[in-house]
Amino acid sequence: MALSAASGAPEGASKSLQTGVSMIAQQLRAALLEAGLEEIDATGKAFDPNFHEAVSQVESTDVPEGHVVQQLRKGFKLRDRLLRPATVIVARKPAGPDVSEA
């Protein structure tokens, strides 16, 4: 959030702030990674209820049925333990033409 706020500030004032916050964020990510924290990247992968929380389905011809179309919120694991599932939208087959209309 600090990086997005700094990007909206005037050019001269925000450059050093943006650089500092970016360095701190990289150090924090490295420390968490070293401690065993992993992000769950779900986009384009098959839906797995052990690591993903589906909040919606969307019809798609581009993504196979049962695969993640969009990740709304990152999920996290600490070593082999799930901390928070990734919140996702899952693809389903497009509905065919309605037979009852004939």
Structural class: alpha+beta
Order of helix and strand elements from N to C terminus: HHEEEEEE
Assess the beta-strand content as a share of residues: 25-35%
Helix count? 2
User: Runs with pLDDT <50, length 5+?
Assistant: none
Q: So what's the overall shape? A: flat
Number of strands: 6
Taking strands numbered 1, 2, ... along the chain, how are they ordered across the largest sheet?
1-4-5
Characterize the largest beta sheet: strand count, sense, and whether it forms a barrel: 3 strands, antiparallel
How large is the radius of gyration?
A: 20 Å
> What do the pLDDT scores average to?
87
Regarding quaternary structure, what we see is single chain
Distance between the first and last residues' Cα:
54 Å
Helix content: 25-40%
How is the secondary structure organized here?
Elements: H1 2-7, H2 11-35, E1 37-40, E2 52-59, E3 68-73, E4 75-78, E5 81-84, E6 86-92
Parallel strand pairs: 2-6
Antiparallel strand pairs: 1-4, 3-6, 4-5
Describe this structure in words.
With 102 residues, the chain is an alpha+beta fold. It contains two helices and six strands, in the order H-H-E-E-E-E-E-E. Strand 4 (75-78) and strand 5 (81-84) form a beta hairpin.
Features:
single chain; 102 residues; alpha+beta; three-stranded antiparallel beta sheet; three-stranded mixed beta sheet; 2 helices; 30% helix; flat
Provide a brief overview of the structure:
The protein has 2 helices and 6 strands.
